C-alpha cells in the first residue's frame, strides 16, 4: 500500500509563530504515527511579500523544533507552469472568465445595490461580498481588446457553467486525530465566482494548493480551522481538474491571551523571539502537547 503523505506548507512572508509550530509538529507526528511521509512546501506565490530571509528562517525554526522533511522542498514560485496548465484546462472547458474589476469597483457596486434594495448583499465565508458578475456579460470582442491592451485582470470560476457540467455533490473525507473518518459534502457556491488566478501571478492560493497536493501525492491535508471553508473550493477544483481528493483534518488554532488567533499581520510573538529569550524547543513541544524531540534519523 502507498504510504500516507502529510505536508506543512508555510508562506515566507513573515516569521513563524506558535500556531505554525503546532501545525508542523502535528503533521510530523501524524506522519510518524501512520508510518507516512512528511513534506515541507514553501508557498511563495505572493512575490511582493515573500522574502528569501523568511524562507531561511522557516528552515531554521523547523530544525530547531527537531523536524526533518524530505528533500527537495517544493517552492511554488518555481512551478508557475504547472498552475498555467491547470487554469488553461479550466479555460478550455469554458469554466472561467476574465474579470477586470478592482476591489473598490466591486465594493462600490455592491454598496449601490444594497442601497437600492435596502438589504445586505450576500458575503462569502471570509466576509467579502460575492462578486456581482459585472464582467460576466462582456462581449468576446471587448474582453479580447482589453486583454490585448494589457489591462490587469483576474480569472474567476463561472459558477453557472460549473453547475451545468458538474452539478455535484462534492464529497470529501474528513478524519479525526484518532483515525476515524466521515464523508462530508462541501458547498462551493457560497464562494460565488471565486478568483482562481490573480492579477499579478498566474495562479491563486486555491489553485496552486490543489495542483501541488496532487503532484506531490499528498493524501492527508492537516491545517488550521481558519482554512476549513476553503476546502469547498479545493474539492471543487479537484473535481474540475480530475484530481484525487485528499483526506482533510482542520485542527484548532493557537490563540493569544486576548482570544485572537496568532497571526503574522498582528506581529504575534515569533519562534525566533521565544528562542532569543531562552525558551527551549523542548518547552515549546511540551506546551503544544507533543513528545520530546525524537532521536535524529541516521
Task: Describe the structure in your own words.
- The chain is built from ten helices and ten strands.
- With 298 residues, it is an alpha/beta fold.
- The chain has two domains: 1-78 and 268-297, Rossmann fold; 79-251, Rossmann fold (3-Layer(aba) Sandwich).
- The strands form four sheets. A three-stranded parallel β-sheet has the order 1-2-3.
- Helix 1 links the parallel strand 1 and strand 2.
- Helix 7 (205-215) packs across helix 8 (231-241).
- It is globular.
- The mean pLDDT is 94.
- Residues 6-267 form the Glutamyl/glutaminyl-tRNA synthetase class Ib catalytic domain.
- Keywords: Aminoacyl-tRNA synthetase, ATP-binding, Ligase, Metal-binding, Nucleotide-binding, Protein biosynthesis, Zinc.
- This is Glutamyl-Q tRNA(Asp) ligase.
- Belongs to the class-I aminoacyl-tRNA synthetase family.
Secondary structure elements and their pairing?
Blueprint: E1 5-8, H1 18-33, E2 37-42, H2 52-64, E3 74-75, H3 80-92, E4 96-99, H4 103-117, H5 140-148, E5 154-157, H6 159-165, E6 171-175, E7 181-185, E8 195-197, H7 205-215, E9 220-224, H8 231-241, E10 247-251, H9 271-276, H10 281-287
Parallel strand pairs: 1-2, 2-3, 9-10
Antiparallel strand pairs: 4-5, 5-8, 6-7
